[in-house]
Amino acid sequence: MSTARAEPVAVEPTGLSEKQTRILEYLRANADDRTYFKSRLIADELGLSAKEVGANMGAVADAAAELDIEKWGYSSGTTWMVTA
């Protein structure tokens, strides 16, 4: 009988690109503190363009079972409402 213990493994959503995973991790880390996120500010934090953030947000929203991600507004860039 084996006494080896299985170590917990962090499971990342499957099928997400590296950019999508980075966006999702950013939203998870900040969703408790904020509700509204501008694509341009996410992009600045992650070294992406606002267009890249917007283009990947659909896949991120589909993969984020614990977060509700909704396109909220367009004034001075797209804003996303993120709730747990």
**Mean pLDDT metric:** 86
Question: Which outline best applies?
Answer: globular
Largest sheet: 3 strands, antiparallel
Strand order of the largest sheet: 1-3-2
| Percent range of helical residues | 40-55%
How many domains? The number is 1
Task: Report the end-to-end length measured between terminal Cα atoms.
Answer: 42 Å
CATH architecture: Orthogonal Bundle
How would you describe this structure to a colleague?
With 84 residues, this protein is an alpha+beta fold. It has a single domain, classed as Arc Repressor Mutant, subunit A (Orthogonal Bundle), CATH 1.10.10. The chain has three helices and three strands. Strands 1-3-2 form a three-stranded antiparallel sheet. The longest helix has 14 residues. The protein is globular. About 8% of the residues have low confidence.
In short:
The chain is α+β, with helices and mostly antiparallel strands. The protein contains three helices and three strands; from the N terminus they run αβααββ. It has helices spanning 18-30, 39-46, 50-63, and strands spanning 36-38, 68-73, 79-83.
